[in-house]
Specification:
Length: 372
């Protein structure tokens, strides 16, 4: 096994050399996240993808793209496969070599699923440019280190500032604290989520208010305390943001959605806009500790202060990636409880499951509503 993986790691780099050999299908294009000089993965007509890796000593090679594809051995020691039609947007994937799941050396590497993963970007349909770089003024994402007094360790946050931020020294902006999901970190929204691209395009078209977006590392022993004690004070002392609830929003996907729910119910006085993407409190008491397993205390707070919460949250926006989303039932149960209590919210559903294309869509729609 070690020899097979070593051969794979070394020889797969020769896939980059395949860039000198143009594939027969001239209508295909190299994936946005293929490493430089690599000819694979390739996007084919019909939103299919073609993969090629060199592993001459392997007995079996598969592509794990949410479902397993068997790769076929070639006479030159490479293995290839072509997928079915794929949905647009970002997809994690892995190469499975004789049972060992590894990253594809021909792809950029992303932190997802709790490990180093490969990524594939499937183009959106013609005319859908919401998530594509455009010739508009661009903001920037900066990496800001900070010491977490909660976790007693150094952490970092990614901070998006809008295109006009540096053109003035006195204007202040609203701020959205935007959280990643489980198995990811602060890089998720900045890279896989294309937050800067989404916001640049929306701000340029006048559909979204210019805002600062803070993407912190949610892998904390106590997210709520870390956000309130570490992140918000640092942001409000470092960036030109308006330090009040009317200009402060909190949103997150999956685990980050539960973090969002827990935080805004415990501290509603701090936020006026709430976004919960592909998430919801656990439908049973078997939830993960610290992630909403004890949901009744939150429902009790909502019930006791229904009118206050409805007035405080100008936007309480919940989205889901259709019935195929792994959090769908949790969210359905939670919304039912909200309805019984009388909590006002807006629900948005788009097909795609528990994936980045769904979360990009969620950010796109949520950001158009807040701070109006």
């Amino acid at each position: 096994m070690k020899q097979t993986l070593l051969a794979f790691a070394i020889l797969a780099m020769s896939a980059a050399g395949a860039a000198a050999q143009s594939p027969q299908d001239d209508s295909s294009t190299v994936s946005d996240y293929a490493v430089r000089r690599s000819a694979y993965p390739r996007i084919l007509p019909g939103s299919r993808a073609e993969f090629k890796v060199n592993a001459p000593d392997a007995k079996k090679v598969q592509l794990d793209l949410g479902r397993l594809y068997e790769m076929s051995p070639q006479t030159d020691g490479s293995w290839t496969c072509t997928t079915d039609s794929l949905g647009p947007g970002f997809h994690y994937y892995f190469i499975v070599v004789d049972g060992a799941r590894v990253s594809d050396p021909a792809s950029e590497t992303f932190f997802g699923c709790g490990v180093a993963a490969s990524g594939l970007e499937v183009p959106y349909p013609d005319g859908d440019v919401r998530f594509e770089m455009a010739d508009v003024p661009h903001g920037e994402i900066a990496m800001r280190p900070y010491y977490s007094t909660v976790d007693k360790a150094w952490r970092r946050m990614m901070v998006y500032t809008p295109p006009m931020y540096h053109q003035s020294t006195d204007k202040r902006y609203p701020v959205l604290y935007l959280q990643h999901g489980g198995g990811e970190d602060e890089r998720g929204w900045a890279i896989q989520g294309r937050t800067n691209v989404i916001m640049d395009n929306l701000i340029a078209s006048g559909e979204a208010e210019p805002m600062v977006i803070v993407m912190a590392d949610g892998n904390s022993a106590d997210f709520t305390k870390m956000l309130i004690d570490d992140c918000i004070p640092l942001v409000e002392s470092t960036y030109r943001v308006v330090p009040d609830a009317a200009h402060r929003a909190l949103a997150g996907l999956s685990m980050g959605g539960i973090h969002t729910l827990n935080t805004v119910i415990e501290h509603p006085e701090l936020f006026s806009h709430v976004g919960v993407f592909s998430s919801g409190w656990w439908a049973s008491p078997a939830g993960v500790a610290g992630l909403g397993g004890d949901t009744e205390k939150y429902y009790a707070k909502l019930k006791e202060n229904k009118d206050y919460f409805n007035k405080q949250f100008k936007n309480f926006w919940i989205s889901m990636g259709g019935p195929e989303d792994i959090a769908y039932n949790n969210c359905k149960v939670m919304r039912g409880r909200f309805d019984d209590i009388g909590i006002k919210y807006v629900y948005f559903e788009t097909p795609g499951g528990h994936t980045w294309p769904v979360w990009r869509e969620s950010l796109y729609n949520f950001s158009k509503l807040i701070f109006k």
